[in-house]
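User: Let's play a game. I give you a shape written as C-alpha cells, and you guess the letters that built it. Ready? Here's round one.
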C-alpha cells in the first residue's frame, strides 16, 4: 500500500491509488498520463502526470509536491541553445548535478501544467520564427 501514488479520474483530477498493482497497470499506459504534446520538427514538448509525488527542486519543503511535468526533448546542442535563450535554469536536479542539459518544469496542478506547456511552446515558437533555433 502506498500513500504517494495517484491516478487521474475521468475529469483528469489526481486521486490517490494506494493499490500498487492497480496503480502500475494504469501507469504503464502513457496515454493515461500524457496531458499535452507538441512537436516543432525535431523538438518535442511533452507534459505528463507523474502519478507519484515529487518535490520542487528549489525547495526542501514537503508541502510543495509536484504531480505534473513538462519536458523538452531534442538533441543536446538544441537543448543547450534553448537553455541559453531562456531566463531560467530549467534543468532537472539530476542534470544539474552531473552537468548535463535537459529541460524540465514541474507543477502542482493540471491547469498550471497546461499553462506551462503552452508557455514553453510559445517560447519555442518565437525562438524558431526568429531563427534563433
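Assistant: Ready! My guess for every position:
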Amino acid at each position: 500500500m502506498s500513500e504517494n501514488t495517484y491516478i487521474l479520474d475521468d475529469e483528469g483530477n489526481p486521486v490517490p491509488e494506494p493499490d500498487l498493482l492497480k496503480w502500475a497497470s494504469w501507469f504503464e499506459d502513457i496515454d493515461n498520463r500524457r496531458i499535452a504534446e507538441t512537436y516543432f520538427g525535431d523538438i518535442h514538448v511533452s507534459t505528463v502526470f507523474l502519478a507519484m509525488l515529487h518535490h520542487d527542486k528549489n525547495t526542501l519543503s514537503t508541502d510543495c509536491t509536484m504531480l505534473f511535468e513538462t519536458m523538452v526533448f531534442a538533441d543536446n546542442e538544441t537543448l543547450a541553445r534553448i537553455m541559453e535563450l531562456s531566463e531560467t535554469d530549467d534543468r532537472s536536479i539530476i542534470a544539474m548535478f552531473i552537468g548535463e542539459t535537459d529541460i524540465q518544469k514541474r507543477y502542482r496542478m493540471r491547469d498550471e501544467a497546461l499553462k506551462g506547456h503552452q508557455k514553453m511552446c510559445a517560447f519555442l515558437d518565437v525562438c524558431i520564427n526568429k531563427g534563433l533555433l
